Amino acid sequence: MTSTTDLPLTVSGVHHHYRGQKTLNGIDLTLQSGEVLALLGPNGAGKTTLIRTIAGRLAPRQGSVSVLGNDPCREQKARGHIGLVPQHLALYDNLTARENLEVFGQLFGLSGSEAKARADDLLSLTELRDKASARVGRLSGGMRRRLNIAAAVMHRPALLLLDEPSVGVDVKALEGVVALIRRLREEGYAILMTTHDMALAEAVCDRVGILKAGTMIAEGSLDVLKVQHFGRSRIVEARFAEPIEPGSADALEQLGLEPVPEDQSRWHGLSETSEDILNRLMMLQDVPPVSAVSVREPGLADVYRHVTHEPVAEKAIA
Ligand SMILES: Nc1ncnc2c1ncn2[C@@H]1O[C@H](COP(=O)(O)OP(=O)(O)OP(=O)(O)O)[C@@H](O)[C@H]1O
Q1: 178 and 238 part of one domain
Q2: When you count CB atoms within 10 A of the terminal residue's CB, does the N or C end of the chain come out lower?
Q3: Is 136 inside any structural domain?
Q4: Which of 46-55, 88-97, 244-253 shows the lowest per-residue confidence on average (mean pLDDT)?
Q5: Quick one: pLDDT band at residue 288, thresholds 50, 70, 90?
Q6: Among protein residues, the one whose CA lies closest to atom 31 of ligand 1
Q7: Domain finish residue from 221, 247, 274
Q8: pLDDT band at 111, cuts 50/70/90?
Q9: 217 plus 238 within the same structural domain
Q10: CB of 30 closer than 6 A to ligand 1?
Q11: pLDDT-based confidence at 1, cuts 50/70/90?
Q12: Is there a domain that residue 302 lies in?
């Protein structure tokens, strides 16, 4: 059996509150080396509070956090096992990419020559070699995000915490961030990231945790969560030419459909045998014309909507 001392992260019964308002309500979590866990949840769910607690920036009111057997709040040694990339990037804009990495290396206790060698390796890993001498202020959002991730692993921590790694990164540049997270996972980093971006989470995570009002309401691999919440059913979705008026909603609800929370012209429901529902949908009168229908396997966005009863963020897909 793996003990707490071997694991990059063990969170046990963590509670936190701000001025009497509960923000974390008994969180349990473990993370193995080479595993990526995406922490999802609506605004204010407690994701950043949990990341800050794990990083040792906030003390839990109750419960404990262990990083390779050390408490990040009390033991400096634990902080040496953690790399943190905050949502708002922490880089020196007037220094070059290479200089930034070297400065971070020295802050983490590497010697000058160690920091140089490690910066070289990480410039290659992040595909920023040709930008090594460029000032950070001149780099794109995606490049800066990759560089900040590199800075956070200069000292080879066991645990990497990424708070909203897609912020400031456009859709195309996100591929570079995805590739980097995958490479770091292959190198054995345990990675915990918060995100609102379902596509990013689906692309890189081994497990998902969904927080709502400080409670972990779902946790597991995406495959397990899909079976738990949808069994063998698939998602049937109809897109209408116009939003549905209240008077037409009954007919759709009788088919077992409900509006997609973030888009009232899309209605969806679960079905094991989709043909029947599709035929009945086409026969409906007094509803606007159907412009598209689809039948698909549930994805992370569907699991998220199902357990949180909240819309998925705009940028997310499906
Ligand atoms: N410094 C603070 N003082 C008081 N309340 C706070 C503080 N920081 C966060 N909170 C509250 O704690 C709760 C959890 O906030 P947190 O930032 O952890 O959520 P989040 O899931 O990261 O949200 P988002 O997705 O919007 O970043 C919220 O109700 C928030 O208002």
Answers
A1: no
A2: N
A3: yes
A4: 244-253
A5: confident
A6: 44
A7: 221
A8: very high
A9: no
A10: no
A11: low
A12: no
Range of the domain at 274: 234-297
Same domain membership, residue 163 and residue 86? yes
CATH number at residue 281: 3.30.70
49 CA → ligand 1 middle, Å: 6
- Does residue 228 form part of some domain? no
ipTM of the complex: 0.96
In whole angstroms, give the CA distance from residue 63 to residue 4. Answer: 14
Please name the residue whose Cα sits nearest to atom 13 of ligand 1: 44
pLDDT at 81: 96
What is the full DSSP assignment across 227-295? HHHHTT-EEEEEEESSPPPHHHHHHHHHTT-EEETTEEEEEEEEESSHHHHHHHHHH--SSPPEEEEEE
Average pLDDT score over residue span 284-290: 81
Of all protein residues, whose CA lies closest to atom 24 belonging to ligand 1?
A: 43
How many contiguous H segments (helices) and E segments (strands) does the chain have? 11, 13
* Residues 285 and 173 reside in one and the same domain: no
Amino acid at 218: A
Cα 200 to chain centroid, rounded: 7
